[in-house]
Amino acid sequence: MDVHRLMRAVENLRAVDRPAATVAAAVRRGLKASKADGALRGSWLGHPLHPLMVTVPIGAWVSAAVLDAGNRNDDAARKLIAIGLTAAPPTILLGLADYGELDKRQRRVGLVHAVTNAAAVGCFAASYQLRRRGRHTAGKLMSTLALTVLSTGGALGGHLSYAQGAGVHRWQAPRSIEDGTVG
C-alpha cells in the first residue's frame, strides 16, 4: 500500500470541496462573533494549540489499549477512555478554530481528518458504554477498532501539519534563506 498516494488522493478529493468550504466559512463567522479567534488558534503561543491538545485523548486511549493488551484493570482502562472522551471536545474545538484558515487542499484533508476522528470518538464512546455494562470483551474490541480509526485520522492530521504545512509560521514574520533566518 502506498500511503503517500492515499494522502495525495485525499488532497485531490474535490467531492468534499463544498462541505469543506461551508464548514470553513461557518467557523470563521463563529470565531469572529466570539472574538476568541486568535486565542483558540494559539496566537498568544506562536503556533496552533490543536496539535498540543491531541496528546491528551490519544495518550489516554493508547494507555487504555496497553492495559487491555495486558488484560489488566478493566476499570482503569474504562476511566482512561472517559478521560479521552472528556478531552475530545476541546481538542475538536481547537481543530475547528484552525480549520477556518486552511486553503482548499488542506481543507479537504482536514475534513476527512475530522470525520475520521469523529468516528473514532464515537467508537470510544461505544466502548465506554459497553464496559460500563460489564461487556469488557466487546468494549476491548470496540476500543481496538476505535484506535485503528484514530490512527488513520492521526495520519491525516500529520499529513496536514507536516506535508501540507498547515499553521506553519502563521504568526512569525516572513523568513528567507537569504537573510539567514531560515536554515
TrEMBL record:
Signal peptide: none annotated. The chain crosses the membrane at residues 80-97, 109-130, 142-162. Pfam families: DUF2231 (PF09990). Residues 46-169 form the DUF2231 domain. InterPro entries: DUF2231_TM. The keyword Transmembrane applies. Keywords: Membrane, Transmembrane, Transmembrane helix. The keyword Transmembrane helix applies. This is Membrane protein. It comes from Kibdelosporangium persicum.
